[in-house]
Amino acid sequence: MRAGNHDTTGDPVVDHFVRWVAAPGATTCTMPDLADDAWERALVSVRAHRLQGLLDQRARQAPDRFDPVRRDAIRRERALAHAVTLRVDATMADATGVLARHGIEPIVLKGAGHASLLYDTPGLRPYVDLDLLIHPRDFPAAVDRLLAAGCVRRAGGASPAWERHHTKSVTLRHPSGCAIDVHRTIIGGPYGVRIDPDELFRQRRRCVVAGVDTHVLGLEHMALHVCISALLADATPKLIALRDVVQMASRRDLDSASLAHTARRWMLTSVVRDAVRIAHLTLGVEIPRWVDTALPAHRTSLRESVARWSYGGVSHRWRRQTVCATLFVPGLRAKVVHLRRAVTAGSSAA
User: Fold this and answer.
1) What is the domain count for the chain?
2) How far apart are CA 262 and CA 260, in angstroms?
3) Which InterPro entries match (predicted)?
4) Tell me: the pLDDT tens digits for 237-252?
5) Range of the domain at 159
6) Residue 92 located in a structural domain
7) Helices (H) and strands (E) in the chain, counts
8) CATH at residue 72
């Protein structure tokens, strides 16, 4: 991923507008003028990048830049996004309650957690599904409990052995219609092997997210996850994911030295550095000084280069990640088991 690779509408004016929406106040991005046909395309792009809340904020800050018709359209977009978010919040309350009754305490990831902890107003950061991290030892039971409570498994799926020991997540459909991604790890592939789930759960924080008393990742681990999501999760990340990085990087309570130490242990130094730099460059924001101090540029090892390569491109990502992950599985016998299970798992296991 490179800075500026979000120009996907084919209209540079629309792409510039959407980056302006995603950027915080202290940005070099400026609002371009949009003709009516470009405005409609811009709304589609805003929706795709989940920027409805930030667009509404922009319109409130500079109402003279939007005529009454466009202000009404912005309010409708915000209301529709908010309705979806409320459904996800209700699903979170139900799903975490089901798991808690069976002694399973998940960590709320991504959308809901980021909205509550990274933004002054959670409504600025819409989300459309629920992500729950389960400790690997509780993962099979958590999936079974949610299925027993009325959730439905996505068609297809991995073999039971792969799902129990290696899969990144399982997608369920809640009776509300909301998708629940039940995670055993915060990322699949090589980095998923490196990351220690015990540490994630030891350092989790209890807090209220959307009215639900639950857990989120510790700040340092959330920072790592924000960077992973922005740089590796999708071939082309949503702009809201880059804004998440900017929000996290500007927090005064983020211990950059501790973050850098954990990033080195988990071989994520270049991931964090690149995610922070790309997010700030794309959104026209000054890169924080701590990046070069805590995460200095370094020669990337062969193992790290192979790991990063496995997350690139669009096609065959799961196969590349699975093969490369084997390099990081400790022990020859465990490597053989990993590959054997991968062969029978199928690409739907991702």
Assistant:
1) 1
2) 6
3) NTP_transf_5
4) 899 999 999 999 999 9
5) 12-349
6) yes
7) 17, 7
8) 3.30.460.40
